[in-house]
Write a structure and sequence with these properties.
The chain is mostly beta strands and 716 residues long. The chain is 3% helix and 42% strand. The chain has three helices and 47 strands.
């Protein structure tokens, strides 16, 4: 009989409760969230509204749809909390989990594909919008293989964070890719008279036509609860039914209105205390709790807790003085790079943080955030809250910059004079003293400031170009040169690359200026085990060799080209050409060919080629000479033809000796052959119809052509 009684009681308890499985989201696209591990530390936050969930009670399990399984165990945490907000704004993970309940903390895998159900610590869900907060801590730089999960589109209802090597501390990214979810909720029948408490609004006041969400202070546990939302223009009867049977109601209005909700369990009804949703006015709660993170020498990230407005703007000043906004006009953001002094609006929007640059090391700055309600239009109408709040205004002091030589570490090398050359050097063990955040200016890429460094200090005794050479088998090495202490001076130049071997840079230096050369690496490798370094003045190029005209050449054309070999390091060539020695300057060329004209006939010329670059000109270059062609002969043209002696008729010859084409010009196109460039003329009277002509070359070219014309000379 006792066993039967216990069985009847157990059956009664079971029949008095029910289990609801709610699935939210039907999308089939996939993403890493909510349990990604591509980065070492990933976070995901999602809002599921009370109307989507539809019941209240005890959440016993949560489920996500696995698109690609992952068998490796990942440290995982899940938090739950409720909110009156229906959308997310960018905030930190610490803010998101503040006040949340940790319902799962274990190391687990994500297999198999399909719906994966996770048994959590039972969570009493009162019926508001539900925040599901998921955290994975794979560690290090994460992994290239990871699980993916199905998601659906839900505007601004998802936010994510990720970072390698340490947990993310900055604000997250809001998007609409909300993971599909499955909730198992145990409910029991309600009892007694509901006590809904106060009516709560997600935003009060609000602009005309803008949605806001009404909710209740107290949840009514159990199933079978119904809700009837009502409105009244003056908070008195008659009340008008406006809402459906859910514990929240989203609506908008054009004039101030009272709202309440009648909550019914069986035959008993409780009514919430009404709320007056007012006309547009300044928000009642000011932004507060201004804090600073990522604080450096010239930069800082400023974060605050939002008030009850729908926007806010932030002002930075180097003194603790601020001008409150007046009127309802818009504010103008000057930018996040601080101008140096005075009030500057650095942010305007719906977020809770801003990063600023342009600050001065070891300097105190003050921040003021103004919460306001914006009613959009043309123009907008803004209602500003100007009161102060906890740590609003707030202040922060930038880090004090290190100084030279103390801030350079123990590996500093003072070079007494140039040139300098050393082998088997290392920066391992020196520490990361010079970073992209403590230098006055970043030379090249900030990535090359992340390894250990070694600084070389020197003062050149003469101005000019200097060549810096770094040789090492280590990859991702760099040299950065500053015209003073890197913490306060400017960048002169750099060479940075991922390759090993030799890296060089040529930079112009000023005598008497003290320079700091930083040898550094990317994060990996963290240092250079061995490297060679040299610093030396750059040198001018060497001399060249003249190809044509050859030294001592004769019969050189009065117009033509001087050619010569290229000189290593030369950027141009000065040409010296005249009848005196040393020859006078004639011109400059950047090629190895120089065209000249206008030389005098039968004249001795001297020529010298001097290569040049930014470091100077070659010295001691050879002077060569050549002689130009003689003047044209008297018989250069037909009209001045040289007459043969009378040609005999007895078979003997008439001849002319010692004739030459030297200095002759070309009269016309040759009848035969090609490339004719000079000719001379002879005349004779033929004594017969057959004449034999013969040319015998004693010296000069063997490419000869002779032609016979009859008639009278005419100009060609």
């Amino acid at each position: 009989m006792k066993r039967l009684l216990l069985f009847i009681i157990a059956m009664y308890l079971f029949l008095g409760s029910s289990l609801a499985q709610i699935t939210i989201g039907t999308g089939t696209l996939t993403q890493r969230q909510p349990f990604g591990c591509y980065f070492g530390y990933e976070r995901s936050a999602s809002i599921y509204t009370s109307s989507e969930i539809g019941v209240n009670g005890t959440i016993t399990t949560l489920g996500w749809y696995v698109g690609t399984a992952y068998s490796t165990n990942i440290p995982t945490k899940i938090y739950l909390k409720t909110t009156t907000s229906s959308t997310l704004t960018s905030s930190t993970w610490a803010t998101m989990i503040s006040g949340a309940t940790l319902v799962y903390d274990a190391t687990r895998n994500y297999t198999p594909t399909g719906w994966l159900t996770i048994d959590i610590i039972d969570y009493t869900y009162p019926g508001d919008n539900l925040l599901v907060l998921c955290e994975t801590n794979y560690g290090g730089g994460g992994t290239s293989s990871y699980p993916v999960f199905r998601y659906s589109t839900a505007t601004s209802q998802h936010q994510y964070w990720y970072q390698d090597n340490s947990a993310p501390t900055g604000s997250g990214t809001v998007n609409s890719n909300r993971p599909n979810i499955q909730l198992n909720i145990t409910t029991s029948a309600c009892s007694g008279t509901p006590d809904p408490g106060n009516t709560i609004s997600s935003a009060n006041p609000v602009c005309p036509g803008v949605n806001f969400t009404l909710s209740l202070q107290n949840a009514t546990p159990g199933s079978g609860v119904t809700y009837q939302w009502q409105s009244s223009p003056n908070g008195a009867d008659p009340w008008t039914n406006i809402g459906t049977s859910t514990p929240t109601h989203t609506t908008s209005q054009t004039a101030a209105t009272y709202y309440r909700c009648q909550v019914t369990c069986g035959t008993k009804t409780g009514t919430s205390n009404p709320i007056l949703q007012g006309d547009p006015a300044p928000p009642t709660t000011q932004a507060s709790a201004i804090t600073t993170s990522a604080l450096a020498y010239t930069t800082a990230t400023i974060t605050w807790t939002a008030g009850s407005g729908n926007r806010r703007y932030a002002v930075l000043n180097n003194v603790n003085s601020f001008t409150n906004p007046s009127g309802t006009g818009d504010v103008t953001v000057a930018g996040t790079a601080y101008s140096g002094s005075g009030e500057q609006i650095i942010y305007d929007g719906t977020g809770t943080s801003v990063s600023v640059t342009g600050l001065i090391a070891n300097t105190t700055y003050y921040v003021r955030v103004y919460e306001y309600l914006r009613c959009t239009g043309t123009p907008n109408t803004n209602y500003y809250q100007t009161s102060t709040a906890t740590n609003n205004p707030g202040s922060f002091t930038t880090l004090a910059s290190p100084t030279c030589p103390g801030g350079l570490g123990t590996g500093t090398v003072n070079i007494p004079s140039l040139p300098y050359s050393a082998t088997a050097l290392t920066n391992c063990g020196n520490g990361n003293n010079i970073t992209s955040t403590n230098v006055a200016s970043v030379c090249g890429s900030s990535n090359y400031y992340t390894g250990e460094d070694k600084t070389f200090i020197f003062t050149p005794s003469s101005s000019g170009d200097y060549v810096f050479t770094l040789t090492s088998i280590t990859t991702y090495t760099a040299m950065m040169l500053y015209n003073g202490c890197p913490f306060s001076a400017s960048c002169v130049g750099n060479v940075q690359s991922s390759g090993s071997g030799t890296k060089t840079m040529t930079l112009s230096l000023t005598s008497g200026t003290t320079y700091y050369l930083v040898v550094d690496t990317w994060t990996a490798p963290t240092c250079i085990p061995s490297f060679d370094l040299s610093i030396a003045a750059a040198t001018p190029p060497s001399c060249t060799t003249i190809t044509t005209p050859a030294d001592g050449a004769t019969n050189v054309a009065l117009a033509g080209n001087i050619t010569f070999a290229a000189a290593t390091g030369a950027t141009s060539y000065d040409i010296y050409l005249s009848t005196s020695t040393p020859p006078a300057y004639h011109g400059n060329t950047t090629t190895t060919t120089y065209a000249y004209t206008g030389l005098s006939a039968n004249t001795l010329y001297y020529v010298q080629i001097i290569p040049k670059n930014a470091n100077g000109a070659a010295s001691g270059c050879t002077i060569t000479s050549f002689t130009t062609v003689p003047p044209p002969p008297a018989n250069d043209n037909c009209a001045g033809a040289t007459a043969f002696p009378t040609i005999p008729t007895d078979g003997t010859c008439a001849s002319l000796s010692n004739q030459s084409t030297a200095g002759a010009t070309q009269s016309q196109v040759a009848c035969a052959g090609s490339g004719a460039d000079d000719d001379v003329w002879f005349s004779f009277v033929a004594p017969a119809t057959t004449i034999i002509t013969e040319i015998t070359a004693v010296s000069g070219s063997s490419d000869r052509v002779h032609e016979i014309f009859s008639g009278t000379c005419v100009p060609w």
